[in-house]
Every structure is written in C-alpha cells, then in structure tokens.
Amino acid sequence: MTSPSLSSTSPPEPVEFLLHDLSHRVGSLGVVTEDVQRRLETSTITTLRQVLPATPGDGPRQQAAQALLEVLEEERRLSLEDLALIRLQVRHLRHVLRRSLTVAQAGPVSLLEVIDEAVVLADIERHGIKVHCDRPTLPPWHGDGGTLLRILLALLDNARAAMADLPVPGLIHIVVAPHGDRFTVSLTDTGRGWSTEGGPQPDGPRPAMTGAGSGLGLVSCQERVRALLGNLRWSSPGPGRGATFILELPGASS
What we know:
Number of domains: 2
CATH superfamily of the largest domain: Histidine kinase-like ATPase, C-terminal domain
Number of strands: 7
Mean pLDDT: 75
CATH topology of the largest domain: Heat Shock Protein 90
Strand content: 5-15%
Helix content: 40-55%
Radius of gyration: 25 Å
Number of helices: 6
Order of helices and strands: HHHEHEEHEEHEE
C-alpha cells in the first residue's frame, strides 16, 4: 500500500484574490485577441489581392505571386477561425469566473452551486469522465464557499488521476446529504482504488494526491477541511474497485 505524501506547500493566496487576478488576465487576453483579429481583418493581403490582378503580364513571377497570395489568404482565414474559437473560450472563461467569484463571497452559499462550479473548473468531462450529482433540496450552507471550492477541485482532480488510462470511461458520483444542520458530500470514483489488507480502512492509505490541477495535495486538503471545522474520510473496497471520499461540513452553529 502507498501512504499519502506528507509534504505540504506554503499556504496559497485567498481564492477570491486568485479569481480576481485570473479574471483580470483573461480580460487582458480578450483585448489582445480582439486587436489581433482587427489587424488580420485589415491585413495588407486584402490590398495585394486588389492590386495584383492589375499587374500586367502573365509570366512565372506573376503566377508565383498569385500562388503565394493564395497561401497567405488561406493562412489568414485559418488564423481568423482559430481566433474566433479563442475569443469564444475567453467569453466562456469570463462567464465562469464571474460565477466563481460569486461563489467565493462570504455568506450562505448553495452547496450544489459550489459543486457545479468545481466540476466546470476541473473540466472533468473533457477527459471522457462522466459526473453524476444527486440534487436534493438543501438549505444554504453557512461557510466559506471559496475554500470549499478548492477542496472539491482537489478531490475531483484526484479522482480524475485515479481513472486515467482505464479501459472504460470513468464515473464520479457525488452525493450531498444534510444531517441536522451539518452536511456530508461524498465523491465516489471508479478508479484504481487501493489495497484493503486487513479489511476496509476509513482514512486508510491511498496514493497521494498530485495536486496537479488544484494546487492542493492530500495533506493541504485535510488542513483546509479542518479550517472549515469539518472532516475528510476516505476508503476503497480494493484495487480496481474505485474509492470514496466523504467530506463532512459543519452547520451554522459550529
């Protein structure tokens, strides 16, 4: 069995600050792409197309110039198509960031909205992994939505890594349940799992989180859960049989 890594990094910046910074950078990227698109649309290639047919002669140089112009026009067309896709993604990112900044604000938050934002930001389904989340009617959760968002991103990133290179598409099942004024959020994946010698081991060993996408390893994740006055448990029924992480969150009275 492989034990979780105990290495930890310096505390990350507050999530709201990071989201504001990322939003600013995405906005700057949008300005740059718009400028590049304008320059391509008003390129001298358009002027050359107007001038070249008027050039007398039909010799090798004229034919070569025509061929070169056609290549430049095709490259310009493809570049404009690529820029259009980039601008579409930039608009999507700005929309996601605006919603994420709302989640990161202090005060009561919707647990299902935070989970939805984590799934979008983790981009899980791009890896061929399906995510199913039960959606019961829940009261608001009185906690730090930004910190919870980062914890969920770490757990989703860990599940994605556990299902990498599997012969069948992976699945993550998320269940949220109230318990009095407390909540539990469980994430079950169909990944590699780990050995359970001696029987099931809640909080037992499992491969270390890489933190590649979230910036959080398992230890840092646990520290953030404790900062919320919550608890994090995990277990696996055995190798190749997936794993379950259970996040316990306190209520308003805690």
